[in-house]
Hints:
The structure is a homodimer.
Chain A: H1 5-10, E1 16-18, H2 27-35, E2 40-43, H3 50-63, E3 68-74, H4 83-92, E4 97-102, H5 106-114, E5 118-123, H6 126-134, E6 139-143, H7 158-168, E7 173-176, H8 182-190, E8 196-198, H9 200-203, H10 212-220, E9 226-229, E10 237-240, H11 243-253, H12 260-263, H13 269-278, H14 301-320
Parallel strand pairs in A: 1-8, 2-3, 3-4, 4-5, 5-6, 6-7, 7-8
Antiparallel strand pairs in A: 9-10
Helix pairs in contact in A: 2-3, 3-4, 8-14
Pfam family, one (chains A, B): NMO
Protein name (chains A, B): Nitronate monooxygenase
Keywords (chains A, B): Flavoprotein, FMN, Oxidoreductase
Amino acid sequence: MIVTKLTERLGIRIPIVQGGMQWVGLPSLASAVSNAGGLGILTALSQPSPDALREAIRETQKLTDKPFGVNITLLPSINPPDYEGYARAAVEEGVRIFETAGNNPGPLIKFFKSQGCFVIHKCTTIRHAKSAQKMGVDFLSIDGFECAGHPGEEDIGGLVLLARAAQELEVPYIASGGFGDARGLVAALSLGAQGVNMGTRFMVTEEAPIHKDIKARMIASSETDTLHIFRTLRNTARVFKNAVSSEVVRLERRPGGAQFSELRDLVSGLRGKKVYETGDPDAGIWSAGIVVGLIKDCPSCAELLRRIEEEAESLIQGMTHLVVRGHAKL
Amino acid sequence: MIVTKLTERLGIRIPIVQGGMQWVGLPSLASAVSNAGGLGILTALSQPSPDALREAIRETQKLTDKPFGVNITLLPSINPPDYEGYARAAVEEGVRIFETAGNNPGPLIKFFKSQGCFVIHKCTTIRHAKSAQKMGVDFLSIDGFECAGHPGEEDIGGLVLLARAAQELEVPYIASGGFGDARGLVAALSLGAQGVNMGTRFMVTEEAPIHKDIKARMIASSETDTLHIFRTLRNTARVFKNAVSSEVVRLERRPGGAQFSELRDLVSGLRGKKVYETGDPDAGIWSAGIVVGLIKDCPSCAELLRRIEEEAESLIQGMTHLVVRGHAKL
Lengths: 330, 330
């Protein structure tokens, strides 16, 4: 096994956290990841209400006795969801590990810390990481350009962003964006991270609540099959390249660009949900990171984490043999 | 020391290759890198003619008895340079290691292989890497989104691109784009590479033929201080963000975009050369990768490579302690 500050602090076996994923971070997946030795994460906003989140937490508790967490992502929104209600519900149901992400997380982080919870805050810049550090988060999740969903606007690939984190941060961090295998995990550890966050890779597992045709489509796709929408609105999101996302980009590239109101129907969350439910990859917008190019099968979470753990151990051992001591000939 | 297929094949001490850099890959730098245990590289097109390249090679041979190479980059050009002349001159002067890059490298690679030379071909996609593999190159250099100069148009960060290379390639590879320290080197080894290529990092060394004010500017800058020009011309290049490159991007973003002819004066190579000579960062366009954000000092090449070697060895040793065998408690 691989022991890091993350596994020690959370009491998990392998330093892998499941990413918060809208419509995907449900009890079936979160419990499977936790049972497999990682940290499963329920995505709060996949539930229609704080009470529905309570139900999802209880269901997860029935499926695993291992630690799991809840993700709350704060995104620009005309009618913001009841973030505080979700947060209180989760704490009241006994959740002690939270992943926060998005804009103005201060009040949420303060609340969780006042309740004695462990907070991982995800951010895409060193500046935001330092600011979250001041707010007292326990861990950071440093999310690079490769990620699914919102990479921010600075486009700094994980190779550099994580090494910058090693230079700048005092709080320990995990690596997000572009991780799906043992090579990535060991690279993240080399770059100073205490583990990785994997979203897209967990979408293609037996337990992910996603139609099998979508999983098959992801297996068949390559690292060039994602694109950025909302770049011109400065709210960039990386999603799977399909008819709908390509149309959004086309509209954004027209002279004069596009207003969000013109794109709203195309990008509706309910259409995205339909993709996972019906297996139609063109039903709407759905998230995927470039790591989709590395995914070649659909294992159970247990199989996946066992494989990553074994391969990572063997990669680390292999690397020690590259280091030659003493008076070498060269 | 760290022994990989790269160090073994080339007879060098540390698996670090200096990137080919226009106006920078001169004898002073190439010999310093080779003397420090890496592979120094003369950039052929920094010399005005094949005969001038001969002189540069002779000068380098006087400064080091270690192996060094010559880079020949094939770029879209209205009046292409005499690539074949440069290639013949280098081979005739005894150079046995070449780095090729750019479009249609087939004839050059064929020539070098016919002369018994060792060829590293740099490319930015798995497709091009496979094609170079068929041409018989000895090594590949897999160049990700983070790089200075030409990243291609697919924008795949090194974390994923290198792990894809591990899945797809039979020929060994080094990692390019975003590398400047020991963490990056160990990450690259984790991702299956046999070493790294560093360009931007070598720009900020004592021996780099660059004005001290530019080195100071690079030390003071962050990972957000580069931008992409020529994106709309599908010939993207990552350069330092300054008045000139910002103006190029502004012109490209006008409705209707910009023709190369409108940008030609702004991006002229001679203006770029002036930056390095005069120390005026706004004199023209000059290349830098996002790794510039990691650079905090201006060591000699010997100091830099010694530091990276020692830190990499210590990172690798540290990682082995994370792997815990036997019946752990967790």
